[in-house]
Design brief:
Layout lengths: L8 H35 L4 H29 L2 H16 L8 H15 L2 H13 L6 H25 L4 H16 L14 H7 L3 H16 L1 H13 L4 H20 L1 H7 L2 H19 L5 H9 L1 H19 L5 H59 L1
């Protein structure tokens, strides 16, 4: 990769520290939001459809606006200013959640929050790839800081909520986001020499292998809609308390971090294609298990499979997209990946689950998720076979 300036070892290590702190705070906040925000809405007496709409609107923002922000960043080489700006503005908008529990007001806040929050993770992934340079297969070690924060948060927060109330999550998310925004000022301003046109970089994403991968990844995240949208509600309806819910989410992240830390070893031994297919098959098994069991032991065992359904899938996705995009288009490449998967995929998953939650229940929804993941894996495998012929 050709930069307008080079990094010495001291600068590189200091940049790794800054980026590690951004992952730590971003996923620390996610450890508050993901297990408990929908549960907070459930306690506000919102219907399953309303919860699905709020989650879906957030995901729509993850589809549309990262592409807009990434296009501006790559076209005018202003990735860092946009990242800092969006970090501060999204934090300020979140503060409005402190003053309302009305569904329509929260829907409006969610729309504007999503516009500015949406590009943060894809930009952070692009910063990470830039700083790592030739060490990209050690990406998992950097990303692992986020998982550590997620684990710490969900383990502690479940007990805190049991003692106090679930309303505390809104304040915690605000302060965590503010800390991340302040530290974002230290993000490195790495500039890349322009070698090809922006339109040429975008066309790379229209190649058949990329399109097939993105479609399959979309199905993978659709299958996660029940988990990310209604897993905590599912456990509460089974009679489990907030502490168990926190432990359950934490166990999944502990399994994930082992994969993240060892990702360089995994991808030296196994091809990205095989790791991706394996991730789909394990996801199908995981959701199938949740569609049948009420046992705490089996539920916790299935959470260990998060190491594959998220850990190996996420790392291989980041590496795959990075390998297919030119230096000047990496922000756009990561933004498209996040938009199609964690944006569009989760959006569809949330809307479907929100609509069907009260009529089918979570057991049936997990069964449907299993078949969706299986379908994505089989399509991916067929495409891999065709590419080799």
């Amino acid at each position: 990769m050709k930069y307008l300036w080079s990094m010495d070892n001291y600068s590189k290590n200091s940049f790794k520290l800054v980026i590690g702190s951004q992952y730590f705070l971003y996923f620390g906040v996610m450890g508050v939001f993901l297990p408990y925000f929908n549960l907070y809405c459930y306690h506000l007496k919102f219907s399953g459809f309303q919860i699905g709409v709020l989650s879906g609107i957030r995901s729509i923002a993850l589809v549309l606006f990262p592409l807009v922000w990434a296009g501006l960043a790559d076209r005018f080489h202003i990735r860092r200013p946009i990242y800092i700006f969006c970090s501060f503005i999204s934090t300020a908008i979140w503060a409005f959640y402190l003053y309302t529990t009305d569904f329509w007001a929260m829907l409006l806040i969610t729309v504007f929050y999503g516009i500015f929050y949406s590009p943060i993770i894809s930009f952070l992934e692009a910063f990470t790839m830039d700083v790592l340079g030739t060490e990209k297969k050690s990406y998992g070690k950097m990303r692992g800081w986020g998982t550590i924060a997620f684990i710490m948060t969900v383990l502690l927060l479940g007990k805190v909520i049991d003692i106090y109330s679930i309303e505390i999550i809104i304040t915690l998310i605000f302060f965590g986001s503010m800390a991340q925004a302040i530290i974002s000022i230290k993000i490195p301003d790495i500039q890349i020499k322009k070698q090809t046109s922006f339109s040429s970089n975008a066309k790379v994403l229209l190649k058949r292998p990329v399109i097939v991968f993105l479609f399959c990844a979309f199905l993978m995240l659709v299958s996660h809609g029940t988990y990310y949208g209604f897993y905590s509600i599912h456990l509460e309806n089974l009679g489990y308390g907030k502490t168990f819910i926190g432990i359950s989410w934490a166990l999944a992240s502990i399994a994930e971090i082992i994969v993240m830390i060892k990702s360089d070893i995994i991808f030296k031994r196994f091809s990205t294609d095989n790791v991706l297919f394996f991730s789909f098959m394990v996801a199908a098994l995981r959701w199938l298990g949740l569609s049948f069991t009420t046992s705490s032991v089996i539920i916790l065992f299935l959470q260990i499979l998060h190491a594959v359904t998220y850990g190996t899938f996420h790392v291989s996705s980041i590496l795959y997209i990075d390998s297919l995009t030119p230096d000047e288009g990496k922000t756009l490449g990561q933004a498209v990946n996040n938009a199609v998967t964690y944006g569009l995929g989760l959006m569809v998953g949330f809307f479907i689950n929100g609509y069907l939650f009260e009529t089918l229940g979570t057991f049936t929804l997990f069964m449907i998720s299993s078949f969706i993941a299986l379908g994505g894996g089989l399509i991916l495998k067929c495409s891999q076979i065709l590419d080799r012929q």
